[in-house]
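HUMAN: Please help interpret these tokens:
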Amino acid sequence: MTTVRFALLRGVCQLPAYVLHARGLLAARGIETRVEITPTAWLIPEQLGSGAADFGVLPWTRVAAAERGEAPLKVLCGSGYEEAAIVVRTGIEIDAVRSVAIPREGGMKDLTAMRLLDSLGWTRERVEHRRFPSGDGAILSLVGFGADAASMIEPYAAMMEHLGVGRVVRRTGDVWPGAPGCSLAAGATLIGRDPTLVQTVVDAYVEAAQFVETHLDEAAEIGARFIGVHADIVRRALRVNRPNVDAVRSTDSMRKVLEFMRELGYVEALPRDFSDLQFLDRSQERRTSA
């Protein structure tokens, strides 16, 4: 049996991958799956490039803005959708925020936070940007009273509200409607070498995403085991934020995100040819005609 290795993160944006693995959707197609939860998205391109992983679910912006020397990756299918949120600590009004915890530059949590600063008129002189190497660091800074606000994804924003730590004041969709977040990706070499395998994985991923949409309670139970929070918190998050395989078709929002990345100096030119949606197209065509 062929074995496919997935490099994943923790979050609602990863639910289709969790479901794919837990429900054996690839095993039913003759493919064994192995999953590794990676501590930060910035490690996944190295895992894909080295062959330690075959597929990963990571921010599409990280695929588009490949760093020097990295093996080329391609976005194959959407997953996260308008996934980042800004949470302000309980008891602090928006206009009183003086510090915000933000993960490393380039990810959707960072970019949403930066655009939010603009939309609310939070200038650098008024609001201190406190950078952390991972989303976990930003969340802990908020919980530990190290920052007035923080950028994070679900279900952690829902968890902050559930615990009374903070409240969501803005989401990605408020500044970039329809924007994708973490997306299924693979190396260009694998895509060229074994397109049949890639198609099979995308087919299973689309099936898993549909399962999430139609079986929210069971999907929440599956996700809770990977994310490490109670299923009730995942359910709460799913009421406001769900995966969407078509998010990577939101070209207008994606273009605006890329232009903002260039404005911030994260990229010198607008990235191109970082997605390959032929597999998603075929998968959806088959499901429509079935």
The beta strands are 2-8, 31-37, 55-59, 73-77, 84-89, 99-103, 128-132, 149-153, 166-171, 182-187. The longest helix spans residues 195-214.
